[in-house]
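Ticket opened by: R.M.
Priority: normal
Category: complex prediction / small molecule

The reporter submitted a protein together with flavin-adenine dinucleotide and asked that the result be attached to this ticket for the collaborator who will pick it up next week. Submitted input follows.
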Amino acid sequence: MSDTTDHTSFDLAIVGGGMVGNALGCAAADAGFEVCVIEARAPLTEWPAEEVDLRVSALSRASQRVLENLGVWQRMQALRVSPYTDMHVWDAWGDGHIHFNAAEIGQPNLGHIVENRVTQLALWEHLGRFPNVTRLCPARIVDLQTGPAPLLILEDGSRLHASLIIGADGRDSRVRQLAAIATRGWEYDQHAIVGTITVQRHHQFTAWQRFMPSGPLAFLPIDDGRCSIVWSTRPDLAEGMMAMQDADFCAALSEASDGVLGEVTGVGPRGLFPLRLGHAETYIRQGVALVGDAAHAIHPLAGQGVNLGFLDAASLVEVLIEARDAGRNIASEATLRRYERARKGANLGMLAAMDLFKRFFSNDILPLKLARSLGLSLADHSGPLKHLIIMRAMGLAGERPTLAR
Ligand SMILES: Cc1cc2nc3c(=O)[nH]c(=O)nc-3n(C[C@H](O)[C@H](O)[C@H](O)COP(=O)(O)OP(=O)(O)OC[C@H]3O[C@@H](n4cnc5c(N)ncnc54)[C@H](O)[C@@H]3O)c2cc1C
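Result attached by the on-call engineer:
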């Protein structure tokens, strides 16, 4: 579906209509910019309400605020969002355990488990309501020119001019590659298996995460009583489990979860995602900015990826509005640097923390096992420190762009 075939000139050309690109598009359109969103995958034509999407994300309160302020949260609630009030995290070795509870910090919940397609669809529909938005879909970019007059070339040969090109095209970003922006990072020795399961006992609107030396296993509550799983484990184990019959897979999962919700009684289709850490060396080039996974790919163990991406989007739009209102060039280096300064350090901090966490928990060295067992128990009884951890995970601590308040 293309809203127009007349690809003229735009303020912003956003490559990638995933969750982050679409959120950025809505925020920029709301602020009056002429926006074009180019998305490679065709949008959903029917809504499979009974099935739970393989891909879900734990959305923080800060992300919820962004989506509320953009005017799409109600639509998402009508499609399906699953609040969770508690989170239990424990180590497979020893007694280390921490329990987070929303009431402890006076909140109704800790966040929501939301299928990625719910967020994407609500934002995509909303984009379609703006007269100043052009959606090109399915359409794919094949080339771009950076510089004072940025240009995109699409697969069908058409050319598109924009004051600023934004790469929101995910972890393997073509925009990032074409703009010659290098990344730092490495493959994790873990793949994530995802899927939807039925369990013997109700999840109690609680997210459960067990750390094993091979990687963490999370049961994320869906409001119909099912759970979405993210099971990060060694690639060879993951491939073996992907090949298992459903009954064997359920048995393996029951054991790995320590029977926390009783037996796993059923599983739907499974998906496998190799995990990688990646951080763009710079978020900007002349006429180009990166947001979301195009700028940073993070281990999913604390469910932060898209939450960081929404803050990128909110922050970039804020900087662009300020520049425009002050009569400055929205694509000048000074403008884009302000965006990079606002986000790169914060994202790097979270990437590093999750990397450390992953290493700390994925090993069998006795002193470290003792340290993490003690660490979890101390943190569980630490009062203000524990509250700070919750507030940070919910995106309620530290500086936030206006759209996330
Ligand atoms: C197993 C797993 C669990 C996760 N759990 C969580 C969680 O609980 N919480 C959380 O916050 N994050 C989580 N994440 C991370 C989250 O999924 C990502 O951070 C998020 O999807 C990034 O969104 P994005 O819009 O930046 O990129 P993407 O979702 O990758 O979207 C990019 C879009 O760009 C399009 N595109 C790509 N190339 C082109 C091109 N050349 N031309 C046009 N369009 C193009 C694609 O079709 C796609 O729609 C998880 C990730 C994994 C792997």
